[in-house]
Structures are given as structure tokens and as C-alpha cells.
């Protein structure tokens, strides 16, 4: 198998680094363990093309938004049409009304919606609405779950070991970024996810002060972990008992597990939800939603909230995803990939776990069963092997998310993409595990 030459990417990255902090525009555009990232020229469908002339089968999906693949004709056409009419009016439009109505029809918890531009902003707004509605200030957030980079959000999102996390009953507040205001975490309670007992205790003892329990309903950002059977419905019932709102952060799961998100997929409807990433197929748009009563508790401003461009892209994305068989096709592609990963693991006698759920797949090296929670991953996933796997995949034409084992499927992925990917994985898996 021939290794890609990426000399031009290296040169371009170090030139960019002279003018742009870290040489990338978001910290994960370069993995910690790579000297330089591959620089791209364009994408089409499930492939990205590098400045070095290399062709990559991509499973990063621009961090999630590209659920229809890169440069999908249907979005290009909708956006181009709208561009000709104007990109920004700061006024309602007919399409805005259509989109808001459509979202309330497809998302179970949505009686009303409110738009923002990024997942970070939408989560900030959701927390504020929850506090305004309940008159309480504390938010329960779970270890290993990322909801955005704002001071109050980026708390205990990662850890080197479970010692850093502290006891399950009183998880440490880890604020990883220099300059984060420590006092913003005063109103946070950090809990282990998938643990009903600890959640019950927190709500019993502090429910009077807690506005909301916020969670990724399928923990994805730091590496996929499924909710234990009954965890989501029990969390909902506990929240109801203590007059606390349950908020699902569906920034990743929204439109990926199903059009109605994880709440539709798992059949548990939260009080509020936050959507972003895939809802406009690659143009920035995010949204919070909930009942009419809750959503009336606050309204944000924002120059770029739901621009006509984003609205056009979102309507086009929904139109595609609504076509019969779309999710079944993505699920079948994900199954082909993850069955293949499991077979490769068996063939080489290497412990690998893989699973697929519509447009989200996962793989973990070092485990041969589903991870139970964040601590289980920290203790048992072979992160060094995955880091090497990530770099090797890149060298042989497969683009993965670094460090986390999360794999995004789009409507553009083909069986041929999967078969080629598996050939590469078959070659690199033994090389990754020393
Ligand atoms: C679950 C989750 N919530 C919120 C965010 C923040 O979204 P954004 O990067 O659009 O600000 C992310 C981003 O990766 C995420 O994965």
C-alpha cells in the first residue's frame, strides 16, 4: 500500500502558522499528535482532496455538519439561489417561517424554536432560558461531555485519567483553558453520565437549586457511548419529580440518529433540546427548542441568527433527509463498515469494538464490548493505538476524527468507499497496536 506524500500540506501549514494562531482556525483542525494537518483544496460527496493532490475518504464530515457529503448539489443550488436574492436581511422571511414550522413538526420536544449560529451559542441560550423559566441557577452537566467553549461550558470535558475526575459522587470541576473564569463553574454540578444513582442523589439533595440537567443523550463528542437501557427515561422521571428541566444537547445527534434526533431515536422526549451542526448541511445554524411555555422565557439577539442562506441550506437538508430510505441506507453503510472493523480485529487477534447507529458509527481499540461510561473509556480504550491508527489512516487516504473513535456517515458514502476503507484498516490496524 502506497503512503501519501503530504510535503505541500506541511509547507502551507507552517506558512499559515506565521499569521494564524496555531496555524488552524479551530483547535481540533490539527490533532495533538500530528506535526501538521493535511490542507485541503475541495470536497465532493464523501471525498476530500488535499493540496498535495491526494484523495481522502472522509469520516470527519467537517466535525459533523456534512451529513449530505461535501458540496451537495441540492444545497449548492438552494444557497446560490438565495445568494442572488440577498444573504442577510435582519427580517423574517417566508422561508424562515417554513423552517421553524417544519422543525416543530419533526422534533418531538419542539413546540417553538429559536435560532442561533453555533452549538456553543445555542447551549448558552438554552441554559439561560432554563434558568429564567425555573428561577433556579444550577445546571447538572456530565463528565466528558462537551457543550461549547464558553467559560461555563468547557468544564470537565476531558481528563487524562480517572484520578483527575475525582469521586463519582463529587466530580472535580476541571477547567482546561488558561483564562477561563473559575467562578463561572460555581453554578455547575458535574456528575458521571449513565449513573442513575448519583443523579438521583444530586437531585434529591439539591433539586431546589437546579434549573436543568443537561446531557448529550448519546454521548458522542468525546467518543461515542450509548445510554444504558432506561437511563434516559429514568433521568426524565427524576427531573420531573424535582421540577428540573431535562435538556438534550443534540448538536451531534440532531439529524444524525434521526431527523427528530436522539429523542426520536430513543423515544424519550426532553423538555428542551439544542441542535446545530448537521441541521443546515454545512452552513452555520443552530437552534434550541422546547414547549411554548418554556421557550417564552427568553429570546436572544444575534446578527447572524438564521441568515437566509442558512435557512435555505437547512430546508434543502431536511428535504433530502426526509426522502424514504435515507437513514436505512446510512445505517446499512455504517453496518458494512463496523462489521468489517470487527472482522479485521478478529482476523488480527486485536481487541476492537465497533457499532453503528444511522449516521454515527464508533470504533474503540483495546475493548471488545461497548464502553459503559467516560471512566470506562479512560481506563480501557487504547488511546495510543488509536492515535497511531488515526495518523496511518491519514497516510493511506482515510480521514478520521482524531483521538475519539467517532465516525460520521453521510448520504454520499458508498459501498466502494467502505470496501476501500476496510482495505486500509486491515493494513494499518496491526501496525497501530504495538
Ligand atoms: C455535543 C456538542 N455540543 C456543542 C458543541 C459546540 O458546537 P459549536 O462547535 O458549533 O460551537 C459541540 C461541538 O463539537 C458538540 O459536539
UniProtKB/TrEMBL annotation:
| Membrane found in the keyword field | no
Task: Quote one Gene Ontology molecular function term.
Answer: transaminase activity
Q: Which domain of life is it from?
A: Bacteria
Kindly list the cofactors needed. pyridoxal 5'-phosphate
**Pfam families named in the record:** Aminotran_3 (PF00202)
Q: Extract the InterPro entries matched here.
A: Aminotrans_3 (IPR005814), Aminotrans_3_PPA_site (IPR049704), PyrdxlP-dep_Trfase (IPR015424), PyrdxlP-dep_Trfase_major (IPR015421), PyrdxlP-dep_Trfase_small (IPR015422)
The record, for CDD domains, names: OAT_like
Q: Which Gene3D superfamilies match?
A: Aspartate Aminotransferase, domain 1 (3.90.1150.10), Type I PLP-dependent aspartate aminotransferase-like (Major domain) (3.40.640.10)
List keywords of the entry alphabetically.
Aminotransferase, Pyridoxal phosphate, Transferase
To which protein family does this belong?
Belongs to the class-III pyridoxal-phosphate-dependent aminotransferase family.
The record, for PANTHER family, names: GLUTAMATE-1-SEMIALDEHYDE 2,1-AMINOMUTASE, GLUTAMATE-1-SEMIALDEHYDE 2,1-AMINOMUTASE 1, CHLOROPLASTIC-RELATED
- Its name, as the record gives it, is Aspartate aminotransferase family protein
The top of its lineage is: Bacteria, Bacillati, Bacillota, Clostridia, Eubacteriales
Amino acid at each position: 500500500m502506497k503512503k501519501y506524500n503530504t510535503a505541500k500540506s506541511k509547507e502551507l501549514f507552517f506558512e499559515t502558522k506565521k499569521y494564524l494562531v496555531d496555524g488552524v482556525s479551530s483547535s481540533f483542525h490539527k490533532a495533538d499528535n500530528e506535526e501538521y494537518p493535511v490542507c485541503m483544496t475541495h470536497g465532493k460527496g464523501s471525498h476530500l482532496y488535499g493540496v498535495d493532490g491526494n484523495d481522502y475518504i472522509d469520516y470527519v464530515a467537517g466535525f459533523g455538519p456534512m451529513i449530505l457529503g461535501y458540496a451537495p448539489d441540492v444545497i449548492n443550488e438552494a444557497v446560490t439561489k438565495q445568494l442572488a436574492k440577498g444573504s442577510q436581511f435582519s427580517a423574517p422571511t417566508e422561508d424562515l417561517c417554513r423552517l421553524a414550522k417544519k422543525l416543530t413538526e419533526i422534533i418531538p420536544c419542539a413546540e417553538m424554536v429559536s435560532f442561533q449560529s453555533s452549538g456553543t451559542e445555542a447551549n448558552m441560550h438554552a441554559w439561560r432560558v432554563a434558568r429564567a423559566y425555573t428561577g433556579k441557577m444550577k445546571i447538572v452537566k456530565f463528565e466528558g461531555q462537551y457543550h461549547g467553549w464558553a467559560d461555563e461550558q468547557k468544564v470537565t470535558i476531558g481528563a487524562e485519567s480517572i484520578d483527575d475526575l475525582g469521586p463519582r459522587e463529587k466530580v472535580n470541576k476541571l477547567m482546561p483553558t488558561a483564562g477561563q473564569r473559575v467562578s463561572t463553574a460555581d453554578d455547575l454540578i458535574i456528575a458521571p453520565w449513565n449513573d442513575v444513582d448519583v443523579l438521583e442523589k444530586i437531585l434529591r439533595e439539591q433539586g431546589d437549586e437546579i434549573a436543568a440537567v443537561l446531557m448529550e443523550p448519546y454521548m458522542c463528542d468525546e467518543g461515542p457511548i450509548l445510554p444504558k437501557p432506561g437511563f434516559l427515561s429514568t433521568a426524565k422521571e427524576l427531573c420531573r419529580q424535582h421540577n428540573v428541566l431535562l435538556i438534550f444537547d443534540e448538536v451531534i445527534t440532531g439529524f444524525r440518529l434521526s431527523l427528530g434526533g436522539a429523542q426520536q431515536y430513543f423515544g424519550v422526549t426532553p423538555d428542551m433540546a439544542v441542535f446545530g451542526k448537521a441541521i443546515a448541511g454545512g452552513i452555520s445554524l443552530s437552534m434550541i427548542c422546547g414547549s411554548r411555555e418554556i421557550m417564552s422565557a427568553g429570546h436572544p439577539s444575534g446578527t447572524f441568527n438564521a441568515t437566509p442562506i442558512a435557512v435555505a441550506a437547512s430546508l434543502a437538508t431536511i428535504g433530502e433527509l426526509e426522502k424514504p430510505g435515507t437513514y436505512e441506507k446510512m445505517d446499512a453503510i455504517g453496518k458494512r463498515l463496523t462489521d468489517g472493523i470487527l472482522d479485521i480485529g478478529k482476523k488480527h487477534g486485536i481487541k476492537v469494538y465497533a457499532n453503528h447507529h444511522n449516521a454515527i458509527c464508533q470504533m474503540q481499540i483495546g475493548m471488545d464490548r461497548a464502553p459503559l461510561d467516560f471512566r470506562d473509556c479512560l481506563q480501557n480504550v487504547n488511546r495510543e493505538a488509536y492515535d497511531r491508527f488515526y495518523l496511518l489512516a491519514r497516510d493511506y487516504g482515510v480521514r478520521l476524527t482524531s483521538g475519539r473513535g467517532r465516525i460520521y456517515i453521510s448520504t454520499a458514502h458508498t459501498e466502494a468507499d467502505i470496501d476501500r476503507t476496510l482495505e486500509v484498516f486491515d493494513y494499518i490496524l496491526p501496525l497501530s497496536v504495538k
